[in-house]
């Protein structure tokens, strides 16, 4: 089942934000995330806030979801205005899930239209939807492109049937190529998502998946190490000995293979798990997260961040629908992290991206650690001399260890 929401302070029913959230807002970019919490099948490794049709119960429906999330978008625009935060153009929009493309393309376009109306969508905004290969058609992708979407992120995960079966992915691997071709035909940028380290996946399996993904010539590739989340079906299978556990050395070997093959094909890393053909095809929405910009998250369980304040919506679609129908904020709780927590998060996120972190922002113990990190080959010397913390390939493999040394854990 989906993981629990964090603890925090109660969120007000009117959703109003404290005056401090307006400080410096004009200097921060603004993005919008739309959570679509529906999946045809729950994958065994997933602990995201998603629901299959039989898990929804009464009080919520895929058929009326576009109307509900559009209502939150309108509500959110009013909250920002009433909280004294001047309107800003929305620079990126990301529809995630779940499987957003389980909804009709017309519904997704309708929600984007509400964003355009209520939130002043920038003319050149990046607008992405996640998609499973079997949840799109040539026609639906054309509708999305015509409606203002600019990018699609396709959940390929693997090219190997037995790996997909372990992950409970139900699509035909051959469908990925079709989905990529249809997206390109519609004029959309294309990203493909891969997962490495699945129990039973051999090195050759992984090489085949990487070569297959590169053969589609996408604009962008993400490759994530499989993480076993407590409470998932896969975690239970490992605990019972039905499948083997994941292995850190196996993860490292596969990461090195991916980076080598991506680089040889002309893809540049810009975040530990992400590579793009050019700077222009990086995912700007995710960069906004990593850089600590502002965003509003709409939908059940979605998280938001404005001016240092974080809040999160109620999880279940029925509870979310009830709040929307009542005209009250769907937020379940919120928090303002203290300076230490903000420094930890900023360091963790900025050191993961190729632009790195300004060493002037490090605490004294972090600056003191830089010499050792250079000597150990974990940060790029030239970048360090230019006052930036940028990870080497070895540093990317040991990103958590680098962070611990910078923070003097």
- Structural class based on helices, strands and sheet pairing: alpha/beta
Overall radius of gyration: 21 Å
Number of strands: 14
Number of domains: 2
CATH topology of the largest domain: pyruvate-formate lyase- activating enzyme
Order of helices and strands: EHHEHEHEHHEHEHHEEHEEEHEHEHHEHH
How many individual helices? 16
User: How does the major sheet shape up?
Assistant: 9 strands, mixed
Shape: globular
Proportion in β-strands? 15-25%
Low-confidence stretches: none
C-alpha end-to-end distance: 32 Å
* CATH structural architecture of the largest domain: Alpha-Beta Horseshoe
Q: Numbering strands along the chain, what is their spatial order in the largest sheet?
A: 7-8-6-5-4-3-2-1-9
What is the CATH first-level class name of the largest domain? Alpha Beta
Family: Belongs to the anaerobic coproporphyrinogen-III oxidase family. HemW subfamily.
InterPro entries: Aldolase_TIM, Coproporphyrinogen-III_oxidase, Elp3/MiaA/NifB-like_rSAM, HemW-like, rSAM, rSAM_sf
Main location: cytoplasm
Domain Radical SAM core: 24-268
């Amino acid at each position: 089942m989906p993981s629990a929401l964090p603890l925090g302070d109660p969120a007000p029913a009117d959703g109003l934000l404290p005056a401090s959230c307006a400080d410096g807002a004009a200097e921060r970019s603004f993005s919008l995330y739309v959570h679509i919490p529906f999946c045809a099948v729950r994958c065994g490794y997933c602990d995201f806030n998603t629901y299959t049709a039989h898990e929804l119960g009464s009080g919520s429906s895929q058929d009326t979801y576009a109307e509900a999330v559009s209502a939150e978008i309108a509500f959110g625009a009013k909250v920002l205005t009433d909280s004294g935060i001047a309107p800003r153009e929305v620079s990126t929009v990301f529809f995630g899930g779940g499987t957003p493309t389980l909804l009709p393309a017309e519904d997704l376009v309708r929600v984007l239209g509400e964003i355009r109306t209520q939130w002043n969508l920038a003319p050149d905004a990046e607008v992405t939807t996640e998609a499973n290969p079997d949840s799109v058609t040539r026609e639906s992708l054309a509708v999305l492109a015509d409606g203002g979407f600019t990018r699609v992120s396709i959940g390929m995960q693997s090219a190997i049937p037995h790996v997909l079966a372990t992950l409970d992915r139900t699509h035909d691997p051959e469908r990925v190529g079709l989905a990529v071709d249809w997206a390109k035909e519609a004029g959309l940028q294309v990203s493909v998502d891969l997962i490495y380290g699945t129990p039973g996946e051999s090195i050759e399996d992984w090489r085949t998946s990487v070569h297959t993904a590169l053969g589609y010539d996408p604009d962008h590739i993400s490759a994530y190490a499989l993480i076993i989340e407590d409470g998932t079906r896969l975690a239970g299978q490992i605990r019972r000995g039905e499948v083997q556990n994941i292995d850190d050395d196996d993860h490292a070997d596969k990461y090195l293979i991916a980076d080598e093959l991506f680089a040889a094909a002309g893809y540049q890393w810009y975040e530990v798990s992400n590579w793009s053909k050019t700077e222009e095809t990086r995912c700007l929405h995710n960069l906004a997260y990593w850089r600590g910009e502002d965003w509003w998250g709409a939908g059940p369980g979605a998280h938001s961040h404005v001016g240092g304040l974080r809040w999160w919506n109620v999880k279940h679609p029925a509870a979310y629908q009830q709040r929307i129908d009542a005209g009250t904020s769907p937020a379940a709780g919120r928090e303002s992290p203290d300076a230490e927590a903000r420094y930890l998060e900023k360091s963790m996120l900025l050191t993961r991206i190729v632009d790195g972190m300004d060493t002037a922002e490090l605490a004294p113990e972090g600056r003191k650690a830089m010499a050792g990190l250079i000597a150990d080959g974990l940060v790029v010397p030239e970048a360090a001399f230019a006052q930036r913390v940028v990870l080497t390939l070895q540093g990317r493999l040991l990103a958590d260890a680098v962070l611990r040394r910078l923070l003097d854990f």
